[in-house]
Structure formats: structure tokens, C-alpha cells
Amino acid sequence: MNTTRRPRAVLYLRQSVAKEESISLELQEDAGRRYAQQSGYDVVAVEADHGISGRTWKRPAVQRVMAMIEEQQADVIILWKWSRLSRSRLDWAVAIDKVEAAGGQIESATEQVDVSTSTGRFARGMLAEFAAFESERIGDTWKEAHRRRVEQGLPATGKKRFGYDYDRATGFTPDPVEGPVLQECYRKYITGSSFHEITDYLNDGPTRPGAGYSGPKPDRWSPNTVRRVMDNPFATGRFNSKGTVLQGIHEPLISQETWEQYQVRRTSRRITRSSTKEKYPYTGLIFCEICGHGMYAGLFGSDRTIKYRCNGAANWKLHPGGYVMNSTLEATLIPWLAELAEDINKSTTDTPASLKTPDPTPRLRRALIKVQARLEGLTEKLIDGTVPQDVYERMRDQWIAEKASLEKQLMAVRVESRLEPVKLPPDLMNQWDEMPAEVKREILARVVSKIVVKPGRPRAEVRIVARWEDNA
């Protein structure tokens, strides 16, 4: 340490997330300044991490403090207690090694030990060990509390869930304002609205989120926040616990049928460019025949016309170009829809024969039973030692993914069977240009599985794949 000037001290403060240890930052700073004055140090900086656990080293202020020591901008780190720096044994050891290697010191304002002696270093080590023990004890207590809540049909924490009020005595109950709004969000998405449109709907009413929903701007919804809220099954009366969906005791806001419809729509409309506003009705339906990538909409070229571009076109090894003009697309799609509307209107039954396909449920269930049997057999082979661990893990992951895919397909079939018969306006050709994108998406979701485009000159080739053709 440089002896030609007074030692420079930086105060590091951390307010614990545990309520019983939530000593204010002001009290910690006051104790640190008094200690610095008594020790003859000049305080050159004060850094604080508010409400961040000492179990993690990923704290902005503690990183700045360590950098000041390593860059010779300070000589001493002053803590309120040793536990403020870290509750991790490994982080403690690394921090001390770095500070001492840089010629600095770490001192505590309220737990003073002489670290220049072996006894003092032992005392500091015991205090750090006690801090780690306390952290583990608090963690065990929280784990037990969370386990009891889950067994009672409650999520591990009582944090705010959009659509619900929370009270310690009554638990989660539907919020009279937010509850109906969340129900409407699911209805809008199922009937064709995009997450961006739902975001605008939420921001236009009395249901703007509080802290914890949108990060740095909690007064505004964002599409990512809306996705996160709606993808959570909490509105169905269930909750997630360590990756498993469990039945809760709170009242559901939406039915299981509505949830399944949302899941099917979510899967079918999932797009790669999630930040793009879905104001174009064909987004998420168009795929490149050459490389299989999805195509996204935008205003391209000097004339700023609507075109769909292949995501794989950026990789010239796959293929050059990769555009289809919106007008070219609609030149094939709209007549196809008009012909379909004519067939439906001429049919004497609810669903014309051209739209009927064999029920895939028996086939999917047989496949699901086979996959489940394979998983069980694979586990038995692992126990018997006839299958190596690495082979078991690879095959297990493959069959679990196949099982999940089959379950999604079965859910889609259930949803489809509950839908009303397809209805298309008889004068679809004349109405199409005036229809909102939301209405177009809903029509397309019922009859079109995907639109396959083969980019080329002078015009791209467009092929419509109907829902009943894709499932046949």
C-alpha cells in the first residue's frame, strides 16, 4: 500500500433480500464512514447493490469495487459486515486472493479483525464460513416453505400474477378488472390478433403492468411480456413448479379448451422474427420450397412494395434471392379461397367432402403408446447395464421429443374437432382487400396449413397446402 498518502477507501454496501437482515444502506454507509475516519482513510467512492443476494457474484457494484482495487484506484474495501461482500465460500476465496494480489485490503466496520496475523485471518475465515452457513440455512428454510406451498396447491411464491389479486389469507382470487381483460387477451389471440395488437390493447386501458412485468418501463406492456404472461398456464387454475405443471387451488380464468386452442394457435403461428409486427396476414404461413425456411414480410425495393423474403436467402450456399411479391402471392391464394368458399356454400352438409379427412387420433395414440413403451424399455436396459449411459441419454431425449410432438398433434386434433364448421363469405374475392389482417388470419388459420413458395424469375411459384391435405 502506498504510504506517501492516506489510504483510499471504497465503501461497499449490500442490502440483503432477507427481511430479517435488511439493514438499510444508509446505516451501512454511516458505519463505514465512521470506521474510515477512525482508521485515517479517505473515502473515494461508495458502491451499493440494493436487494441482491450475496450468493451470487454477478452484482454490478461489487464488480466495480473489485475493479477499483485491481486498477489501483482504491486501497481498501470497507464492508459493514464480512457477509456483505459474499455468502459464497468460493467467491470469498477468489475475492481475497485478487485484492491481496493487487496490494489491497478488505476490512469490516463492525467485525474488526487483524488480518495481518494468522489468528486474525482464521477469525475472518470463520466469519465468512458462518455467512455461508447462514445463507444455506436461509435457503433450506425457503425450500421447505416453497415445498409446503406447492403441496397445498399454491405456487412457490405469492408474487403478482396478472389477472389475479393475492392475499395471504385467501390466496389468489380473480381481479375484477384484470381478470376479464386477460380472458379477452386469449380470445383475441385465438381469433387472430397478434401479440403486438394485444399489447396495444393492454396499453390502451386501465391494466398497465406494475413493477416486475416490463423491467425498466413497468408502466408499459411489451410483446415479450404479453407472451410470457399468456404462455404461463396460471389462468387455467394450474401453475409451474420446477418445470412441471401442477393443479392449483385458485379459480381458473379460462377453460382447458381455451388453453388448448391458444397452444395450437401459438404453435402454428410461431415465427422466427418475433420482433416483427404481424400486420401482414400471411406472416408465419409462408415457407421457402428450396430451403424450408420461413419467409417474413417487409417493404422492400425502391418502390417499397410488400414482399416476403426467405430467411435462408442470407446464406448464399442455400440459394440466391428469395423473394415473393405480395401481389404474386395473392394472385394464387385469393382464387383458391374463392373456389373453396364456393364448394362450402354448395355443400348440403356442414363440411364438404373435400375438407373431410380420416381422424388421425387412433394413429397418433398408437404411436404415443409405442414411444412410451420404448422409453420404459430403454430405462430397463439402462438398469440392466445393457445400454451405456450416453446412448441412453441420447435415445431418451429423442423419444421424449417425439412424445411431446405427438401430444401436441393430439391436442391440435382435439381443438379442431371442437371448432365450428368452416364458413367463408360467398363474395370473398370482393371483400378480401377490405378485411382487417386479424380477420384474414382467422380465415387462413382454419383452412391453410402453409403456403409454399419457390422463389424465381420472372415470378415466384406459389402452392397452397390445405389443412386437410397436410393432415391426411
Automatic annotation (TrEMBL):
<dbReference type="InterPro" id="IPR006119">
    <property type="entry name" value="Resolv_N"/>
</dbReference>
<feature type="domain" description="Recombinase">
    <location>
        <begin position="161"/>
        <end position="273"/>
    </location>
</feature>
<feature type="domain" description="Resolvase/invertase-type recombinase catalytic">
    <location>
        <begin position="8"/>
        <end position="153"/>
    </location>
</feature>
<dbReference type="InterPro" id="IPR036162">
    <property type="entry name" value="Resolvase-like_N_sf"/>
</dbReference>
<dbReference type="Pfam" id="PF00239">
    <property type="entry name" value="Resolvase"/>
</dbReference>
<dbReference type="InterPro" id="IPR050639">
    <property type="entry name" value="SSR_resolvase"/>
</dbReference>
<dbReference type="InterPro" id="IPR038109">
    <property type="entry name" value="DNA_bind_recomb_sf"/>
</dbReference>
<protein>
    <submittedName>
        <fullName>Recombinase family protein</fullName>
    </submittedName>
</protein>
<dbReference type="Pfam" id="PF07508">
    <property type="entry name" value="Recombinase"/>
</dbReference>
<dbReference type="InterPro" id="IPR011109">
    <property type="entry name" value="DNA_bind_recombinase_dom"/>
</dbReference>
